[in-house]
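Hey L., structure's done. Input below.
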Amino acid sequence: MASTIFRSFQTHPFVFHPTTLLRRKNVLFYCTMRSAQTTQAATQEKVNPPQAKVSNLTQNKTLENALKDYEAVIGIETHVQLSTLTKAFCSCPYNYASQPNTSICPICMGLPGALPILNFKVIEAAVKVGLALNCKLALNSKFDRKQYFYADLPKGYQISQFDVPIATGGYIDLDIPVEFGGGHRKFGVTRVHMEEDAGKLMHSDDGSYSQESTFPFVLSINIIFFVKVINVCSFLQVDLNRAGVPLLEIVSEPDMRNGIEAAEYAAEIQRVVRYLGVSNGNMQEGSLRCDVNVSVRPIGQSQFGTKVEIKNLNSFSNMSRAIDYEISRQVLLHSQGQDKEIVQETRLWEEGTQKTVTMRKKEGLSDYRYFPEPDLPGVFLTQEYVDGIHNSLPELPEMKRRRYEKMGLSMQDVLFLANDLNVAEFFDTTITKGADSKLAANWIMSDIAAFMKNEELTITEVKLSPQELAELIASIKDGTISGKIGKQILFELLAKGGTVKGLIEEKDLVQIVDPAEIEKMVEKVLSENPKQLDQYRGGKTKLQGYFAGQIMKVSKGKANPGILNKILLEKLNAKS
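Output:
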């Protein structure tokens, strides 16, 4: 007895459902026939196990050796969703996570007769990004129709740019974090072009049903089997809120060689669009989406290997791990002489298994049948318009990092501060108020960062102002308060706000700097701890810390540490 499963699709009358399309899951054909030969073959298959695979240890050693002989070639296509008030070609607003299909119109839905009108903020954003990425701008460009059918594309085509993108031939500078080897990198940018987003497909949890029917299934001319068909259907809902939202697609040159470089490139793109204010760049919301193309080739070979695309990358860490896994997978196949198994395909990253898996094969290049968009005029820019935008650009991440370096900050400090625009602005404002740059960086990177992490707040949400941080640093530096008292004041300011001077006066936190007053405290503590004093003078000099702590308790943390330790040492080493 053997069972054979065939995949197919069955027609079904159209079912009307609000904003839904009907999707067919796999239809199962169960064909049954008696065959002694088949039974015997099936039994033998169970008895004879498949050939054992190479052990993990041997495989890892083979891979480690092979990686030295191959290099990866990586390119990234990044889609940036623009933060315009309305969509690209209509007046509908877009708000993430709003109720499905509440922000649509005939243009979004692709209804006959609806004509697009270009949102000029899209052009402004494209010019900003093009300039920020050191691209050459096309003063005369146009929109094109990219024709393809998919359930979330109601028009049956996407308005995009094909042969004349708005920006080409750029590059981006970035710094690799010290923990990953450090160093400066420069990666090429092939093009930046404008386009519209598609809708979003959502699987229904409660719209499934099944039907059973029986009909003859012809396997050959002479044999007819009756087959029971289980037709399982489920609703696939379409949310068109996102349809028509403006995008910029940024295509890199294949200049990256590992997962770290690719992830840092994508992170720098995110920083750039956030600094420019054209997008929030949130990967979790789909505002920044990256498709990575990976191939490997023997070192020294100029010809590219077979390219594999990776999707489903919702964080930079996932991107790095997915790329490194895919490089290892392809190199291992090459080293085992199975490079023919590397085919042009789209693979998904599975977080649970930490592997890439096949999503779909690509048998050839897609023919999108591009032609100029007939319902939109060309895009013509004047040099005066471009110069005006260029002069309005803010200080970009690369410029900010170089400025911070000139202040004498370490690369670790530089990368932390410049990574977030709001943190960088907080730091810049603090030092303009007179604070030392290194001290300000230390406070922001340590205690302030720890508080924000614990409370799950951003730097714009804490109560501390840059002015008060500068005042706190100055108060510690001039000896008004100690560093320990400074930390107490800092957490009070972060949680509740207020002023440094006000808290010092309110809580009587002014540091004690009078030597005579501190000397009295030292003598009091020594007289109350004669046993420890004898032990110290007997050679246990580590007890100095014990005495210092006791004196600080007496002073409620207000004694100047420098003066305290000087007097304490004199008293401890004095002859009785």
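Residues 1-54, 207-230 have pLDDT under 50 and may be disordered. The radius of gyration is 33 Å.

-- N.
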